[in-house]
Amino acid sequence: MSAPIIKIDGISKSFGTFKVLDGLSMQVMPREKLALIGPSGSGKTTILRILMTLERIDSGHIQIDGEQLYHMERNGQLLAADERHLARMRQKIGMVFQLFNLFPHKSVIDNVTLAPILTKGMPRAAAEKRAMELLDMVGMADKAKAMPAQLSGGQKQRVAIARALALQPRIMLFDEVTSALDPELVEEVLNVLWRLCSETDMTMLLVTHEMGFAHDFADRVLFFDRGKIVEEGKPDEIFRNPKQERTQGFLKKIIAAGHRV
Amino acid sequence: MTQWSGYFGLILQGALVTIELTLMGSVLALIMAFLAGLGRLSRFFAIRALATAYIEFFRGTSIFVQLFWAYFVLPFIGISLTPLQAGVLALGLNVGAYAAEVVRGAIQSIGREQYEACTALNLGRWQAMRHVILPQALLVMLPTFGNNAIELLKATAVVSLISLTDLTFQAQVVRSQTGNTLVPFTTILIIYFALALIISWGVRSLERRMARGLDGVRV
């Protein structure tokens, strides 16, 4: 049994007086595919944002790959992480956003090559070669020269996935990556996630409302409510036979809203 | 009529001085705008304070007085400027203060999601600013920069007060020599207007060029 790649230990986070996360602890093993589900405001997106260092924690500790994320060890003392430490830790993590967040002034291929060239000092030719491989994998190689404004939502999201992959993170965070898409475009993005799931050994955390996909994709499903993990287990256990009342209530509402489980 | 052609030559020479002042003043204004505009967004209090002080001071005092100060008062502390230098300095610093707020506003208008994408891609603060935020913000700044440049063009008329032979100065020379007010002042009115039109056209075509591919869509 190897050590967990993500170890979250008693973290809390408030926005004003609203406590989003309340003493949350959880672990993720290397290569594990995790689905985070739950009602909006339950804290699942906040966890991804905290792991990507887009939000800071109020208390608690996080270890990524055995190293503290928000703390640095200096002479046996734990200090708050500085920007350099955070930058080093971020190399292990990539994130794909609900609204794609592509750079509108850069072509598809420049979106993908920008970070490898700037942060890893990759030569442009090598970065472009790698970008084309990734774009090919997400089925966007023929649009390499296009501008983001010319693409559909599903195409944008596939480019965003290639862009995150270009930095070769060990952990990928997907934050409701199909929620902003028209229904007919959801599948092309989910197909890409499937390929990543089966062809790479990245650890993947997926926040989603696509229950059917979560069921097929995940090794483990976590149901969140009010900043806590209410229930977790294998997809079959959670979706077919939820034990907690709140999980049952949530799934009932989701099914009533027309989502496939 | 022959005498008029000589006077028109004088006015055209003035136009060249006005154009020169406008160009040099704009360059200084642009530099100051980015220095102070970025300064106002700095993490460091001292830099923010310095940028704010500059902006408030130069927006809050008259361009006349600033020009006189640069030309007549600076020599007392050992800095003697030519009329052109004093003119460029006063105009550039004055208009730069207004344009700095344009720079700040444009940068702040870029959505938070762009900054977050930069963080997720591990870009440093300056890398994000240089490659992602500023190129988008520049497009937001351009129309107002055009306004600022036209303001600067019109403000160049004040340099005639420190004996710089710009358009307005030459018109006054012509008026005093010919006794005719209508012709010289109507002529420079038209020239100022034509120059302003050139600036607007230039800025608009630059805008079109930079917006190519964006389709006005923020992703």
TrEMBL record, chain A:
The record ties this protein, via SMART domains, to:
AAA (SM00382)
GO MF terms listed in the record are: ABC-type amino acid transporter activity; ATP binding; ATP hydrolysis activity
Q: Which NCBIfam families match?
A: ectoine_ehuA (TIGR03005)
Q: Does the keyword Membrane apply?
A: yes
Which protein are we looking at?
Ectoine/hydroxyectoine ABC transporter ATP-binding protein EhuA
Q: Could you state one GO cellular component term attached to this entry? A: plasma membrane
Gene coding for it: ehuA
> Which InterPro entries does this one have?
AAA+_ATPase (IPR003593), ABC_ATPase_HisP-typ (IPR030679), ABC_transporter-like_ATP-bd (IPR003439), ABC_transporter-like_CS (IPR017871), Ectoine_EhuA (IPR014343), MetN_ABC_transporter-like (IPR050086), P-loop_NTPase (IPR027417)
UniProtKB/TrEMBL annotation, chain B:
Q: Name one Pfam family in it.
A: BPD_transp_1
Gene Ontology CC annotation, any one:
ATP-binding cassette (ABC) transporter complex
One GO molecular-function entry: transmembrane transporter activity
Predominant cellular place of this UniProt entry's protein? membrane
What Gene3D superfamilies does the record point to? Answer: MetI-like (1.10.3720.10)
The residues covered by the ABC transmembrane type-1 domain are 15-199
Keyword list (alphabetical) reads: Amino-acid transport, Cell membrane, Membrane, Transmembrane, Transmembrane helix, Transport
Q: How does it sit in the membrane?
A: Multi-pass membrane protein
Supply the SUPFAM superfamilies for this chain.
MetI-like
* GO annotation (BP), single: amino acid transport
Task: Give compartment(s).
Answer: Cell inner membrane; Cell membrane
CDD domains reported in the protein's UniProt record = TM_PBP2
**Name this polypeptide is given:** Ectoine/hydroxyectoine ABC transporter permease subunit EhuC
In its UniProt entry, the species of origin is given as: Mesorhizobium mediterraneum
